[in-house]
Structure formats: C-alpha cells, structure tokens
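<instruction>
Derive structure tokens from the sequence
<data>
Labelled lines for chain and fold
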Amino acid sequence: MSAARSTEVSKARDNYDRYAYCRDNGHTAFVAKANLCERFYQGLQWDEKIRRRLEAAGKPVLTINQVLATLNFVMGEQINNRADITFAPFDDGIPETASALAKTYLQIANANRLHWKESEMFDDGVITSRGFLDVRMKFDRQMRGEVDVAVLNPKNVVIDSDADKYDPDEWKEVFITKWMTPEKIEAVYGSGKAKLLKGKDESSFDLGYDSLDEFREDFSGDSRNYQGDRPKDKKRFRVIERQYRKSRLTDHFVDPVTGDTRVVPQSWSKSRVKRTQAMMGWRIRQIRKQQIRWRVTADSVVLFDDWSPYQHFTVVPYFPFFRRGTTMGVAEHLVSVQEMINKVGSQEIHVVNSSANGGWKIKRGALHNMDPDELEQRGAETGLVLELTDTGDAEKITPNQIPTGLDRLTYKLEEYVKSISNVTDSMRGFDREDVAARAIKEKRAAGSTSLVKPLDNLTRTRYLLARNILCLIQQYYTEERVLKITGDRPGSKTEEIPINQMTPEGVIVNDLTIGTYDVVVSSTRVRDSYNDTQFEEAKALRDMGLPIPDEVLIESSNLERKNEIVEQMRNNPSSELAAKREQLELAELEQKVRGGAAEAERKAAETQLAQARAGKTQVDAQKTQVDTELAAMEAGSGADPNAEVMLQREKMLMEIELKRQEMLMNMQLKREEMKMNMRLKMAEAEERLANQPAPWEKPPAQQRPRTQ
C-alpha cells in the first residue's frame, strides 16, 4: 500500500471511529426512541408477536390513535405561527443595507419554500424530539451561487456526544450520514473514488458493522426484505460527512478603532479584499482561531477533505424541549398512555363479545335435532330452536357481567392524554354547547400557554437559520444581482431589488458585504388571521369613538388591491379623507397663528411691566433727592423762627407731593401687573385651545357616571 493510500485509510479510520463514538454514546438510543414514536404516530402501535397471539386466540386488536390527533393539533399551531425576519444595524451597519438584507432573506425563503420545510422540520421535532435543516450554497442553477435549505432526516444527523448546548456554534463536531450506491458516489465525488468501493463486499474496519449494508429508508420500506436475486444497486456504503473544529491561522479584518475582527472570506478576490480594506480603513492580521474542517469518507475511502468554506456548521437544529443535551418531543410522553388505551379498548370489546353467548348446559343424549358440536357453532343464533328428549332440559349459562369501572378507565386514559399534551377539548373546539363563548376563549388562551416552549425554541431555531443565511449572503452575494421577490397571495406584485449595484459615480448601492447586523425574529400568526384580528380591533376602536382613519381599516382588511385603494383615497381631492386632511392642515395653521399672537401679547405685557417698575424706581430716586435737599436746608436755616416755620411748611408740602406721586405710581404698577396677569392667562388659554384637537377629531362626550 502506498504512503498516500495509507494516509487516506488512516483519515477514513479516524472519521469512522469518531462517528462510532458519537453513535454509541447517545445517538443509538435516540434512533430507538424515534422509531418507536414514529410507529405510534403512524398507528403501528402493537408489537407484532402480541398482535399475532391475540388474533390467533380470536381476540380483537384495536388501535385508537390519540397520538395522531394530538400531534396534528400541535403541528397546526406551528403552521399558524409564522416569522418575519429583519436585520438591525450594529456598529458599522447601515439602515438601508439592513432593509436590503431583509428583502434578500425573503427572496431566499420564497425560493426555498421555507415555510413548508420549516413545518417538516417541526414535525420531526415534535415526533422524534429532533429536527434539522441544512444550509449551504449550491451552484447548479446559478453560477454565482444561491443559498439552499434542505430538510435532514434526524436519524441521519449524529450530534457531538460531549456537547450540551442548543447552538451548534458550541459543538465540536457534527456528522451527517447516509447510504449511497457506488453509482451515486461516482456522480458526486468522481469515478476514481467509486472504483475503490465497487469491489468491496465487507467493511475494512473492525466492528464496522454499519459501514456496508443493503438497507435504506425510503418509500420501499425495509429493502432488506427483497424477493429473488439481489440487484446490483442494492449494495450501499455509509457515507460519513464530518464537520469539526480545528485551530488554524487565518486572515482577519481588524478595525484599528474598535478592535473588532472579522474573518476574510475565502471566496473573495485579492482586489475585493484590498478595496474593502481601503474603504473601511481596516487592517489585515493573521489570527489563530477555530475553523471548520470538512471530511467525507465511505468505508476506507476519503471522498473529500478540506477546510469548510462556511463560518458555521451547515446543520441548524430544532428541539421542542431541551435540557443540557437532553432532547424531548411531544409523542414520547404519550406512548405508555396510548398503549393502555389500545389494550383497554380491545379488552372492552372482547368482554362485550364474550358476554353475548355464555354457552349451554345439557344432559348427555338430551339434544335431539343437532349434536353438541353444531350447538357450539350455532348457539348464539337468533331464533335458535332446540329439540330435547324427555331425559333432561337445556339450561342457558348466564354470561359474566362487564367489570365495573372498565369503561371509566377508558375515559380516564383519554383525560391523561389531554393533561400530558396540554391539548384540551377547548383548544380543539370540542367544548360543550352550554359553555359561554368568553369562557371558551379564555380557556383556549390558557391552553396555548402550554405550547409556548416548543414555539419559543422554534423562534430560536429561526434565529440560528437567519444568522447562518446572513453569513452566506455577506460571503457569497458579492456581485451585482437583481433579486425578484414574489408574493404568496393572488394579485401580489413582483418586486425587484438590486444589490451591490455600481453607480456612475463609483458608489456601490446596497453593498451587502459591508457592515455588521443583528437578526430580529418577530413571530406572528398567519397573515390572513393576523389581518382579520387587526381589522376587528381597528373597527372596535373606531366604534368606541377613537379617530381611526379610513385608510387604516382598508390596510387591515383582506381586500384585493387595497394598496391602490388607499393611494386613490389619499390623492383624490373630493374624498372625505382628503377633505379632513385639508381641514387638519388649516387647523394647524390657525393654531400656529394663535400661538404667535399669544406670544406677542405676552412680550408686550412684559415690556409694560418693566416700564412701570422703572417709573417706580425713578420716583424712589426723586424721594431720596428731596430728603437730601431738606436735610441741607435744615442744616443752613440758623435760629430764625420764621425761617424755621417756612422750612417746616415746605417740608410738609414736599412730603405730601411725594406721597401722592408714590401712591399714583403704586396704583399704576398694580394696574399694569393686573393687566399683565390677565394677558398671561389669556395667552395660556389660547395656547391650550390651540393644542386641542379639531372638532371633527374629538371623540363623543363620555356619559357622566352615576353618583351613588
């Protein structure tokens, strides 16, 4: 064996050993549980040995499939729960680019029919406790590549046994395994690889019991039960696709300001890397980080071994209930109750059948017109006539009574199904006719709370899916494209979104490769039900008197071409909506004018008040001056009595005049202050009036509550 071939066999053995370790430490137990739950969902709920034994004894074998009805309701809740994915700019993100990313994601979702694939993944999770989507690029229809989303069989996905997190970014490795014929391997990986496998009749590994087999899971069922000679294409090899993390030096963009790093996509050309570096001011550094290695083997042959072109594992999981590495679905908790329902129902039918004919007691030789064997066959017939001899009478044996409580046990088991799954009669619409509609609505709302956890984990899976698709968009959608988005309802318009478009000025419009964005998941009901709810709520608010515009009602309705109707209402001058809009604009202008006039009045009043206060200050100054003059006159008057009398008289007259002026000034100041206060109150009233809604916008007066 050559050195290259020896190295290849060593890699294949390492791949198989890691697969066998994860298979034997958790995955085999999961497959056994998944097979059991799938059989119960399909109605194959009896063990074949027990079924054959009961049928041989002539006993009924009933299958009352409560699991199917219960899980179908849970699946219906998922169908009625859809998600809107948007992207929020983060750090260097651009709002316009975030909007273009959201539309690009919508185009990818529509092209992949993601709502159906998501439902299939959810069904796998509810039944088997695990569901998986696979996200990668494909180039068969588009040479530049397009995002492809596929549903994986959960029994073919082997998770890292040492992992205990929901997010695959926390796993060290993951396996995707499937059976492939040499012809299929040749078509995918080349004739040279297939030639090494065609001559193999047994595995090259010790204990490699599932490396080579003739089993497959498809529409044919268990293909090992074939008839006649074995066809050539029945030989199949287990292809193990392993994605695992390994340390490696890689080029990273480094922001010198914030220190943030980002891996340089391998698919980018050197010119694009330089252009991005110059545009954003980033630097390039080699950093040792964990990257994904991708290795595909079949038995001892390595089909592919290279670094993964993706930043995340291609596998996106969904677990309805998750607890530190333990996954749980809904069906597994109903298995034991379903078995009891089948057994009790079959026993109940058996008791009823056996009680129809309890048998006969007769003396030997007393039966004249038939023998005992014939009586045994015809003893339960209606209108049977027995002819007896004189030696004895025939006596009908009284059959056993149905055991008390057997029918009650069936009812209790059905209640167990409802309590375990939390799918009640109210949630399924099976309430009694005498139950009030409000009570039914409240019980349905309370029952829906029990499904919050599976739906919340579905939202988590949607986030992981959108995150992986966002990485693929920014890594591979680098050329100029025009994406077409088509609606899923009749009459929906097709929208074209240009991305990475170069303008004549040299600016790239909607450059999806630049910026960091966060995923925002908004879960809503199905669009038709959502619109119905919005329309009813808007109509109820309008009936209460709130000013809900006509266009809001139309946009919430299910009318065809409602956008055109709303646009016509906005542009039609004769419409009621346009008239109200004109009145509203006039009212806004009047409010602005009244506000300006009130402001001018306020300023004029403040000016007059300031003048009045200045006049008072002047009077006070005059009074001070007069006091000073009187003091001087007193100092220079001497001892002349007549002069003293004249001085006192002059002083009295001056004081009287000053008091009169002071009184007049105080009266003038108070008058101005009163005017000022009145003008301020009027301005405030005008301002409150200006802020009130227009008369046509006012709700009707509420009825005054009655006094006790």
Observations:
- DSSP finds 18 helices and 22 strands in the chain.
- The first helix runs from residue 3 to 42.
- Confidence is low (pLDDT under 50) at residues 223-230, 694-708.
